[in-house]
Amino acid sequence: MLRTIATALASAAVAAVVALSSTGVSAGPTLDRIISEKKLVVGVAPWNKFILMNPKTSQYEGLIVDDIRNLEAMTGIKVELVNTTWSGLVAGLQAGKWDVIMSGLGATPERATAVAFGEAFGYLSSTAMVRADSPVRTFADLDKEGNVLSVVSGTAAQQYAQRTFKKAKVTPLSDTGAAVLEVMQGRSTAYIGDSVSNELRAQERPTELRNVKFASNQTEWTSMNHAVRYADLDLLVFLDTYVRSMKLRGWYRTLAEKWNLPPELAVGPR
């Protein structure tokens, strides 16, 4: 009996292989359109050194922009960037306003219920940015009754802060500029954000801001990923092939060096 079942399963498997080999395999409608029209619509949100409009040139620039231009050059597919807010990235993707999110959105189980994430191309940890004259030095200094922590709505930092800080009040805001301003004007104790952006801001305003790093068991690493609709997993395969190839070539280390970003951005926690 078992031999009969095994024989039947083997025959079915062979038949399936023959069927697949005798029919052409095509991409889904979104990837078919992208390849046919040579155009990919990408949703992005402002992020210093990653994706930011240069007011002098009216052109986007940054690490992610360089990566997108490299993808264009290698594939011949023109990328159209559509600017939005961090909180609007997923909603815009689901509404069909763009084909893919390429803002380095962190892959989390919560977000994965709404979008499909691809291969990680970068890594960040969570830190706190405080006023330069703030007495806050540690995680424990922050997590106290009466403290207010500003975050950007829809980011991994918001999820981390709401999950981790038990006593301080977490206040989501629409964008980074507003969240940082709350700290500078004394309405928030700290802004919880990613390690790279916070360190850059602290370096730019050393008399006003300071970056507070957490112990390894208190911080949280997040990845930087592209995201698509679950109906477009073939598009994700296409993008992942590019990302994996570029990682093997050391492309993301090269970009980190170009934009004066820490090398761990390209390699993650060790």
Automatic annotation (TrEMBL):
SMART domains associated with the record: PBPb
UniProt keyword list: Plasmid, Signal
Domain Solute-binding protein family 3/N-terminal: 39-263
Statement: the UniProt record of this protein carries the keyword Cell wall biogenesis/degradation: no
Keyword Signal: yes
Extent of the signal sequence: 1-27
Membrane-spanning intervals of the chain: none
SUPFAM superfamilies in UniProt: Periplasmic binding protein-like II (SSF53850)
Superkingdom of the source species: Bacteria
Protein name: Solute-binding protein family 3/N-terminal domain-containing protein
